[in-house]
Amino acid sequence: IAESSLPGSRFPLEGASDADIGANAQLSYTLSPSEHFRIEEENSNSRSKSLFLVLTKSLDRETIPVHRLVLTASDGGRPSLTGTMELVISVLDANDNAPQFNQSVYNVRLPEDTIQGTLVVRVNATDLDEGSNRAVKYELDTIVPPSASDTFSIDENSGDIKLTGGLDFEAVNLYDLSVKATDKGTPPLSGHCKVLLEVLDVNDNAPEVWVTSLSVPVPEDASVGTVVALLSGASDADIGANAQLSYTLSPSEHFSLDLPKSNERNLIPDLVLTKSLDRETIPVHRLVLTASDGGRPSLTGTMELVISVVDANDNAPQFNQSVYRVQLLESAAVGTLVTRVNAMDPDLGSNSEVTYA
């Protein structure tokens, strides 16, 4: 009997026979207790009545695939004689069960440097029906964000979801995949589940630093403690320890880094003068600022700071001789060149222009 048969359906049975006559051959039938079936005799005065098995409650093959009943025929004699037979009713499957996943949500975590071809997760759906009604095929129904449609693939037979594209935590850190399992029944039924993929950050971004304002050139007579540069631009696209930055300066004889009191992540130290400058010794300072993140291994970003020293009038003219010894004839005429003195000033511009008196 088909599982989809409706209550009230009738199935003819072969009645019993009795070799007696009269009341001794008048047969009545009873069925062993069953909530799904009853016996119905067709109203007839004939010796052999038509007999039907009537379905009283819908069948469910997944609950009871086979029903075993005992049909008893009793005659009208005194004493009554009986005959019995067993009814073995096999329930034929109908596609009345949709595939069911063993989890409604699969939570997966993968680092962003996972290589293509890696198995993301294997989903599994079962169908309580049998035959083609329980054969399941899988497909990716929707992917969020939609731009990731080429990032994942699924084997329609095994339910294996594999990575077919690259992951980038900084671009997308969570994927929502809707998976559908469909059986091959008529009509086909479907079940659904979700795969939530969390992308884990890998330290694949080096810090970036840039100068917001640079006081160039710096006066040679600037006092120790002067802020030479405000370096408020630093960033790392990673998160957590991979984005925690520390800083070094090289060389650091004349300058140091002063960490701001603010706890904002993108602030980096100010560049401060720690030793007096001397343009005549070092006219240009070339510094390298390095930002290192806390990843393992650590990545770094660098920036070159070029600081020119502006001349201050801190050098007096120096004669090339402290004493000039000259011999002059007593008869020398007025206007005669006695000697030429020469003084040099290591400063620049007007600070190096010398007049004599």
TrEMBL record:
PROSITE patterns: CADHERIN_1, CADHERIN_2. SMART domains: CA. The keyword Glycoprotein applies. GO terms for cellular component: plasma membrane. It comes from the Eukaryota. It is found in: Cell membrane. GO terms for molecular function: calcium ion binding. Residues 1-101, 102-209, 210-319, 320-356 form the Cadherin domain. GO terms for biological process: homophilic cell adhesion via plasma membrane adhesion molecules. Its main location: membrane. CDD domains: Cadherin_repeat. It is a single-pass type I membrane protein. Keywords: Calcium, Cell adhesion, Cell membrane, Glycoprotein, Membrane, Repeat, Signal, Transmembrane, Transmembrane helix. This is PCDA8 protein. It comes from Chaetops frenatus (Rufous rock-jumper).
